[in-house]
Amino acid sequence: MSKKDVLTEQAQAMLVQKHQLNAAQNHIGLVDGALQNLQATQAENRQRLELMLLQAQALVEGNQVVFEVDDDEALLIESRLVVQKNSVNLDTPLPRLDFIDMEDGSDWAGYLDQITAYAQRRRIEFARDPFRELMSASQRIALEKRIRDEFSFKSARCDKYDYLIAGTCGLIGGLVDILFVGLPGQGALTHFTDDMTDKAVQQFAAWNGWEGPNKGSDPVSSAIGFLERKYKVNYDHRHGGDVDGLFKMSTRNHHIKSLAHSPDLVGLFFSILDQFTSTAHFVDGGRIISVDTDTFELKGLNLIAKLFCGFMNWLGHLLSDVAGSSGAKTRGSGIPIPFYSLLQFINIGEFGKHRQTFATIAVQVFEKGYDLRHGLAMAIPVMLSEMLTRVMWVVKQRFYHEQEWAQCIPSASNPELHRMLLVAHGTLCIVDGADATIRSGGDMIQFMLRSNLIAWVRFGTLALKELNRWYQDGKLDIEAVDTYLDGEYQRLVASA
Fold first, then answer.
1. Residue 49's closest CA among 82, 77, 87?
2. Per residue in 110-122, pLDDT tens?
3. Helices (H) and strands (E) in the chain, counts
């Protein structure tokens, strides 16, 4: 049974419960009316009785009549006569109140059967939308207004200051990208990320038992060598000779051609696959090539243990390659930026004097140092533009629009902030693209080397979301509704 059917059954049960509640309230009204009538009759009888007692007393005193019976007994007899004469007729009973009889041990299915039977007895028709029938007209109006205000897509209403702020933040990020990122291995930020990567590799090696380099040896190369020996895999082919010359491959590009070396879900999938099946998968010319390897057996007594072992092998081997190989004399070939390996499947176009495809160009760009370390450097100006835009939006909301701090949370779900982020990253991409175009001189490889791929990806995701907002303007935002309902559910569970 689908979730929608379950909710419909629950709503129908609530409709029956609402009908029972209304019937009980009406029944209480009838009982209350009968009691009020009885009280009024009793008061009237009391007045008549008091009047008759006064009249009898006056007659007795006027005629000097002496009764042989006790006075109290006589008055009691008279009272009975009055009450019998003016008694309230309750022979007509109140209508019977219908109800659902739930026996001990009844389950939900049995309760639903009782609900259906009750609805048939009382001629209750379930509407197409039972939830609508559960609300009053005022409640429906309030709900529709809240949905329009909080749970529907709305177009941004930015003023000129918003666009000015966003453009300035993007320009700052673009200038940082030009001045401090530059070509792979040359910019100040790339040197910074290279150093941080080297330290991370040494720290990870120390966690795994590395005791430091030998005297006179390079600590980074020593740590890399230690990790290479500890996290051996069967897909670490280094050149074309290792794959019997099926395709061209060298130590400079084997990390991008091997799909298992990609630090993303694609790489994880192929790493686990290769380790379980003793194969290796590569990309060349836009096609996947599978190569059989020596038998490789993962440790572990069951499937879960073997999967965990495969995951740790993949992660440890990536960290052994992220800073280059142990035998590299220069910066070395690291691992690709997440999902960058997929560019090899775009085997189209003719670029440069050698008329090379885009897939070939992407590999050559990687060979020149466009790896994960350079990707981290490119992410810094992108993060800078993002944070500056969000901070400035908060400042403007708090001090210019005088909003409460609770209303100044810089969530990208806010249409104005999302538009500002789009403008900021768009400005960053314009500056980056103009710089890459001018400095590359029309060479495709140089253009890609100087382009900030992280910035373009971020701008692309924001642009797609903005197009979706424009198309969905005024429609219900299902994701926002789900987020709200999940939050309310967690709140109810916590308070239970």
1. 82
2. 777 777 888 777 7
3. 17, 2
Cα gap 261→315, rounded to integer Å: 9
Residues recorded for the chain:
496
CB atoms within 10 A of CB 172: 19
Spans of the chain, pLDDT less than 50: 83, 88
* Residue-wise pLDDT tens digits, 13-22: 777 787 788 8
Query: Distance (Å, rounded) from C-alpha 281 to C-alpha 289?
Result: 6
Q: Where are the domains of the chain?
A: 3-134, 160-182+378-475, 185-370
pLDDT of residue 167: 97
Contact assessment for residue 321 and residue 227, using Cβ atoms and an 8 Å cutoff: no
* Nearest residue to 233 via CA among 282, 305, 293, 308: 293
- Decide: helix, strand or coil at residue 77: helix
* Nearest residue to 118 (alpha-carbon basis) of 6, 29, 17: 17
- Containing 326, the helix (H) or strand (E) segment is none
Question: 124-163, pLDDT tens digit by residue?
Answer: 777 666 666 666 777 666 766 666 666 677 778 899 999 9
AA identity, residue 107: D
Distance in angstroms (rounded) separating the CA atoms of residues 398 and 415 = 17
